Amino acid sequence: MAQGPIRRSDVELVRERARLDEVVGEHVTLRGAGIGSMKGLCPFHDEKTPSFHIRPQLGHWHCFGCGEGGDVIAFVQKIDHLSFVEAVEMLAAKYGVQIQYEESGKGGGDRPDFGTRRRLLDAHAIAEEYYREQLGTEAAEIGRRFLTERGFDREAAERFGVGFAPEGWDSITNVLRGRGFTEAELTASGLVSAGQRGVYDRFRGRLVWPIRDITGNTIGFGARRLLEQDKGPKYLNTPETAIYHKSSVLYGLDLARKEIATQHRVVVVEGYTDVMAAHLAGVTTAVASCGTAFGADHVKIVRRVMGDSNPSAGLRLNTDGRGLAGEVVFTFDGDAAGQKAALRAFEEDQRFVAQTYVAVEPSGMDPCELRIAQGDQAVVDLVESRRPLFEFAIRSAIAQVDLDTVEGQVTALRMAAPVVAGIRDRAMRPEYARRLAGWLGMDERTVLRAVHDAARSEGRSGGRHAETVEPPSGTRPPEEDEAPALPVPRLADVVSRRDPVGQVEVQSLAVMLQAPQLLAEAKVAALPDDAFHVLSLQGVWDVMLAAGTLLDAVTGALHPARYLEQVLEIAGETVRPLIVEIANLELPARTEPALEKLGDSLMDRLTELSITREYSVLKQRLQRTDPSDGERYQEILGRLAQVQERRRSLRGAGD
Questions:
Q1: Distance between CA atoms of 334 and 342, rounded to whole angstroms?
Q2: Residues near 19 by Cβ (< 8 Å), separated by ≥ 6?
Q3: Which of 7, 14, 242, 11 minimizes the C-alpha distance to 101?
Q4: pTM for the whole thing?
Q5: Mind listing the pLDDT tens digit for each residue in 605-620?
Q6: Spatial distance between the Cα atoms of 377 and 283, rounded to a whole number of angstroms
Q7: 59 three-state secondary structure
Q8: Fewest beta carbons within 10 Å, which of 192, 347, 470, 540?
Q9: What is the pLDDT of residues 141-186, one digit of tens each?
Q10: pLDDT tops 70 at residue 588
């Protein structure tokens, strides 16, 4: 049964059970960095000096170099390129947390409950193991020959998990029944089909490729026809199931995701053997859609893995000439179907910030055929020969007509002008219009006018590129489910290291967030609501007070990690990053007694600064008050005396 969000209590239990130092330690070499703190080289950007800090007791991490930070779930999301739900489920499975889902208020979501999902994944893991074993049998000789003819040896087959489904009608059915799976579970898995006499194997006498999600779990299979008597489709995939949705699955992504994130490039090919050939040739960022065209959901997945989110990134280049947002390179066959697929990709291009290209082999060979004919380097060269998708789309449009005639030129202009008008970046349209004029042999002004008219026509019809809603050059509108990006504040932008008052305020907040149990309750309770001079830090203090449980954390009635969670829970998007950064700030104390002494000193100094500011305000007010207004004048004098007495008492207590 499909369910809604994961229960909040289960998410909290995952956070509690999953040890941050253990999870991070799988990717980062950590060493001690003071009380309750560890540090190492950040896994999210290149650095030589460690600036990545974690506080296991608080369950939070922060990099002072790149600004990334969060809790254990956020770390798994970032390092493995997962959604929130995927990260929680992955940690839950690792730390033995049985998670449950809320009932969806919208008639059910699209994810199964945890128990059902686990059973379906187990069934696919068993099936993959069985199919891989069968590839070594005598009956699978035809499958091994198929692989050999395409340049794939045994090692390649094992690397990609290729297997063989026997011809029998109940081979995998009996295997799974023997492992305790019910007929209902078999049907739900998509590994079998239902007939009048019961269920039977979906894949028979075929070579099979495991299709995995981004975490590496097998969720379906793609199967290639081998036998002449098999009258089914050339490729047969798992049907839609609770765990397999072809519109949001990319074959090879589990193998390519880290390279995609590192290189900021993804190469989209058309089939399983093309992915294998590309990876073996050295193009390790290759992926393919599974039985469907590359669509909007695939775009979202690629953008998440590649970090394709900065609207201005595509306008700035790395030293190798690539846009910082990266590249999406589509490879298609040179035939009509390949051209049609490339033009469909152009429709999706507008969803990317990354620069989008197409690579088409002139003789019509796909990457697998090209590798067989010309070797690994030819596949690499094909990708490097990419050209902008805009240009390919325009040239494909005009290639259909005879440009040697006036009628052909006009027809080509009518076909190509909307393509140029559909380019997301307005600044690029005039240049492509000029190129189009050259390709058509027409006057430049005529072509520019046609492009302008096409854009206006789109606007009047409410088309995808309506002029009234198009974003400025180099930007893109947010997705329907995406909020506009807000600038993320950094502590270095808020407080200068040379500002002694600012440093006292930052460290005061840090010790209250990191080790509130070491502070004196009376001193924390005495802090005024407006205790901070730096405006952004006052905003952090406002949130800490609004949580209403600071004194509980000070007295030990509330764990510091739980207090921090409560503060972050009510914090707004602009102040939350500051809180995370402050909670991971390294303090100048190496032992707990030293930290307790530092905290006591900071509370006194913070109180003294507050009193000094109050005294200054009152003194200025006194100077503006007419002495003839005796009552008002005496009131201010009395308050000044009280403030002076408080300051003397504070200093006396510190002596």
A1: 10
A2: 56, 72
A3: 7
A4: 0.64
A5: 888 888 787 778 777 8
A6: 10
A7: coil
A8: 347
A9: 999 999 999 999 999 999 999 999 999 899 999 999 999 999 999 9
A10: yes
Burial class (CB in 10 A: 0-12, 13-18, 19+), 379: buried
Q: According to the model, what pLDDT value does residue 364 have?
A: 80
Cα–Cα distance between 211 and 238 in angstroms, integer?
A: 9
Annotate 353-369 with b (16+ C-beta within 10 A) or e (fewer). Answer: bbbbbbbbbeeebbbbb
Beta strands in 21-160 (DSSP E): 31-32, 38-40, 52-55, 60-63, 69-71, 111-112
pLDDT score of 361: 86
Distance CA 532, CA 136 (A): 71
CB contact at 8 A, 306 and 266? yes
How long is the chain?
Answer: 655
pLDDT value, residue 346: 60
CA 448 – CA 613 distance, rounded (Å): 64
Alpha helices in 441-575 (DSSP H): 444-460, 491-494, 500-514, 521-525, 535-547, 550-555, 560-570
Do 41 and 50 contact (CB within 8 A), yes or no? yes
CA distance to 249, 275, 474, 547, per residue, from 286 (Å) = 14, 6, 26, 48
Please report the pLDDT score of residue 221 as a whole number.
97
Cα 165 from chain centroid (whole Å): 35
φ, ψ of residue 626 in degrees (nearest 5): -70, 125
Neighbouring C-beta atoms of residue 92, cutoff 10 Å: 21
Instruction: Assess contact for 97 and 10: CB atoms under 8 A.
Output: yes
Other residues' Cβ atoms within 10 Å of the Cβ of residue 617: 11
- Measure the CA–CA gap between 379 and 370, rounded to whole angstroms: 6
Instruction: Tabulate helix, strand, coil % of the chain (nearest 5).
Output: 50, 10, 35
